[in-house]
Design a protein that fits this description.
Blueprint lengths: L32 E2 L9 E2 L4 E2 L2 E2 L2 E8 L9 E19 L7 E13 L4 E8 L4 E5 L11 E8 L5 E22 L2
């Protein structure tokens, strides 16, 4: 992985996500929050985010990590074992932005990915109760951080989630997600 000047990673004041770089730990003693749907194995998550995820044969654990940030001091370590569409999400309620184009992105660094593993972003429309846009997915190890990105109009009602979505077996880091609406 390339060395980078952390000063080259300014915070975008237009980013609509809270705690986008996972820099603000949860108030939980270990710095990771507890997901509403904790599942088995229990999922720990950064503040302002929620997630889910387990199946009988595996699941995903989300952990704030000091080990491999793209920018800042922290990133999100994603460990999935035989996962089936597990997500970490943040809800946005933006009815005044309906119809305007949103651009969502995040950087991912995949250390290990088994056959069938995938990591990507999607937008979940809370009114229609379905995925309305997905980024390309990464399904193999990467040598450095890769940017995932998607664009779509804000859905009717303006209530949606940005979701970091995993499936299969992989170990990866996610950093600097953003949602921008010009």
């Amino acid at each position: 992985m390339q060395a980078r000047d952390m000063g080259m990673c300014p915070i975008d004041p237009q980013n609509l996500l809270q705690n986008p770089g996972f820099e603000t730990p949860s108030v939980e003693p270990d710095g990771n929050g507890k997901a509403v749907n904790t599942g088995i194995p229990a999922s720990s998550i950064p503040g302002k985010w929620d997630g889910c995820c387990s199946q009988s044969g595996g699941g995903t654990t989300w952990t704030v990590s000091l080990g491999t940030p793209r920018c800042g001091l922290r990133s999100l370590l994603v460990s999935s074992t035989s996962a089936n569409a597990n997500v970490l999400n943040q809800t946005l309620q933006l009815p005044a932005k309906v119809g305007k184009t949103l651009t969502a992105s995040a950087y991912v660094f995949v250390q290990q990915a088994s056959a069938g593993a995938k990591l990507g972003l999607d937008i979940w429309d809370l009114t229609a109760n379905k995925v309305i846009a997905s980024s390309p997915t990464i399904s193999q190890s990467t040598a450095d951080w890769q940017k995932l990105e998607l664009s779509i109009p804000v859905p009717s009602g303006g209530n949606f989630q940005l979701r970091i979505n995993t499936s299969g077996t992989l170990t990866a880091y996610v950093d600097d997600p953003s949602v921008l609406i010009p």
